[in-house]
## 1
Amino acid sequence: MKIISLILQSTVIVTSLSSLTSAQTMPGEALQLLDGDGDGLVTLEEYSNRMDTLFTGMDTTQNGRLEYSEIDSFVSQDIFDTADTNNNGSLSKGEFDIQVLKDFQGADQNSDGALD
């Protein structure tokens, strides 16, 4: 049951982030899932921590990389290929972390270090 919940949360968050450029238009449920301390703001630390958890849950082969087949139900091939900077067909944790930072910075429209 925990895996199903994680997959559903992953889908909401990743779909929201991959298709939106502003936290102001991000669905409220995605922000709530990311807001670790419940203060209504999502800091980079909270965001990164949640994304780390999602990476682990999405890595169904537990090989430390994300293959496209593990996330193809909610991430387009184009988005995956952009994040796969070494073009080896998988996302390392490092590549994932770089994309997480880019996504956060893109959503933080006023550059205050928080999504609200």
## 2
Amino acid sequence: MELNNLITQQWQVIMNNDYHFDRQFWYGVTTTKIFCKPSCPPRPPIYNNIVIFTAPEQASAADFRPCKRYRPFNQIVNNQIWVNEIEQV
């Protein structure tokens, strides 16, 4: 994982939720350890908290978990897993 490799175009894509860039890159939010595709419409992230990944597997390997709206592995994330992770924080 490369930190601080966000470029201006990727930032604009994330802020505009541009679906044309889905599957070209994924972004993770370092404060929540959640990753999403560019078109996912969550609350806008803070620029300095973003990390770019080239594949969802890369994000998972860096200990980021998938967004509940977006299921990159086509699997529903079990709610108990989320509860357990939140309780550990």
